[in-house]
Each structure stands twice: as structure tokens, then as C-alpha cells.
Amino acid sequence: MLDIQDLSISFHKQPVLQHISFHLDGHECIYIHGINGSGKSTLFKLICDIIKPTSGTITKKNDLQIGALIENPGFLENETLAYNLQFLASLKNQYDSSYIESLCQQFQLDLHSSMKLKNFSVGMRQKAGIIQAIMENQELILLDEPTRGLDQTSIHTFCQLINQLHDKGHTIVIAAHDYLPDIHYTHIYRLEEGQLFLDEMD
């Protein structure tokens, strides 16, 4: 599904990631942890072709569908939640209204509200960001600090949803400070000093 070989990137001659190698066969649920500035968001941006590496290669299977929440989710601020989700899904003609409605209900968001995104709280925006990353049945889902701003009820909903998606065969990579023990991870990695290490699981 995804193969990263000897990947490095520097900004202003300062190395951020150094000689990263990482492989996903499919159907994994990965947790990557590391301090602020360790390169978690940068790794996701590289996988999504938002930025280019200084060296190394990223090989993805043909037509790999990736859903991603990276840093702060961006939306059309003067439009509603429904407009934003419909607009994003229409880019690939994959708008499943019943599934999106279900996701919004799980996260206690009103899909039919007239409220503009600019008036959403941090937690509401985060929920919308999670929904857009998974609403098109994407094979690979990348979630960067996904529980930022979420209350405990929403975190519980999020963990249940991730486990359900993994059980259905999706591959999920979560990069975050907070370890969520209710998620059934298959592997845990640590980003430290620009390098990626596989941690032992209890």
C-alpha cells in the first residue's frame, strides 16, 4: 500500500526527518508519538504530496485513496458544515449522504445547521475535520492530533469509530501526543530527533 525508503527533509538547512523508512501492507492501525516539532505533521504532508522530500522515495499503490486531517482543518469559513462536506466529497464524486449524516450524529453535529464554519468552536471544527477524512471510504486515513479540543464523550466516540474502521479493513495512522488506550493499535512508533523507531507494545 505504502512504502517509504530513506526519506529525509530539511527546512532552511535544518534537518526535520532523517532517513525514514516505513512500510504499510494494509489493514494496520498505527500510533506515532513524538514531541512538538518532531516531524509528525511533516511526515503526513510528505505522504499526501503537499511537500516534497529532500531525498528518499515514497511509493504508493495505484489509485490509493487517502483521507487526512493535518494540523488545523481548513474549510470554507462562510459556508455551512453541509456545504463544506458536500463540496469536498463532490471533488471525487463520492458523497454518501446517509453515511455523512450518521457520522455527524455520532459526533453530535447538526449537518443541517445554518451556522457558518467561522462560528464553530475548536472541538466542532475538529469533529468536522475527522469526518471529512473518513467520509469517502478512504483506504488510508492519516489523523494528526485528532482529539484536539474534543471532550471525553467525543474522544470515546472517536476511539469506537477508529476501531470500527480498522475492523472493516481501513489502514489508519494516528500521530498524537495523547495515547488512546481504547484504540486497538497494531504498531506503535516514536519520532525522535528526526528518526522513526518501532516501540515495543505491552
From TrEMBL:
PROSITE patterns: ABC_TRANSPORTER_1, ABC_TRANSPORTER_2. Coiled coil: none annotated. SUPFAM superfamilies: P-loop containing nucleoside triphosphate hydrolases (SSF52540). Keywords: ATP-binding, Nucleotide-binding, Transport. The keyword Cell membrane does not apply. Pfam families: ABC_tran. Residues 2-201 form the ABC transporter domain. One of its GO terms (molecular function) is ATP binding. InterPro entries: AAA+_ATPase (IPR003593), ABC_transporter-like_ATP-bd (IPR003439), ABC_transporter-like_CS (IPR017871), ABC_Transporter_VariousFunc (IPR051782), P-loop_NTPase (IPR027417). PANTHER family: ABC TRANSPORTER ATP-BINDING PROTEIN ALBC-RELATED (PTHR42939). This is ABC transporter ATP-binding protein. It comes from Massilimicrobiota timonensis.
